[in-house]
Structures are given as structure tokens and as C-alpha cells.
């Protein structure tokens, strides 16, 4: 299992979701993709997409207005 991070600070959807989808293509099942954002709409959009596409996702507001997401690749 590997952990990857992509930079999405200051970006609004759909750019963070496009970056996440692209990175997931190169990851193995069980790998984790870590994202942090200061935009609640970006966080929510990624969470909704991940759940709809059967990925595991954990979302936590780690500071006022800062969301930490951990998306686990569960399938190809």
C-alpha cells in the first residue's frame, strides 16, 4: 500500500476531481490518495464522486475551513 498526495490548494471543481481521477489511474488497489483543500465545495464534490464510484473516502475538517481527504483505491 502506498500513499500519494496531489496539490489542489486554491483550485475549484472540476480541476481537483480531474487531478484525482488521473492519479487514481496510476495507483494500485489499496493505495491512498491524500488531498487537502480550503474549499468546502471541492471537498464535498470529491466525497460525492468517490462514494458514487465505490471508493473509500474519509473526510475531516482539520482546521477551520481546511478539509483533509483520504481516498482509497478499491478497484480498477
Tell me the series of helices and strands, N- to C-terminal. EHEHEE
Q: What is the overall silhouette?
A: globular
Residue-averaged pLDDT = 96
End-to-end gap: 15 Å
Low-confidence stretches: none
Helical coverage, percent range = 25-40%
Tell me about the largest β-sheet.
4 strands, mixed
Helix segment tally: 2
CA radius of gyration: 11 Å
As a percent range, the share of strand residues is 25-35%
Q: How many beta-strand elements?
A: 4
Going across the biggest sheet, name each strand in turn: 1-2-4-3
Alpha-beta content class: alpha+beta
Task: Summarize it.
This is UPF0033 domain-containing protein. The chain is of the alpha+beta class.
Any key phrases for this structure?
UPF0033 domain-containing protein; alpha+beta; 4 strands; four-stranded mixed beta sheet
Topology:
Layout: E1 3-5, H1 15-25, E2 32-37, H2 40-52, E3 56-63, E4 66-72
Parallel strand pairs: 1-2
Antiparallel strand pairs: 2-4, 3-4
Q: Could you describe the 3D structure shown?
A:
- This is UPF0033 domain-containing protein.
- The longest helix is centred in the middle third of the chain and has 13 residues.
- Strands 1-2-4-3 form a four-stranded mixed β-sheet, with helices on one face.
- The protein has 76 residues and is of the alpha+beta class.
- The protein is 32% helix and 32% strand.
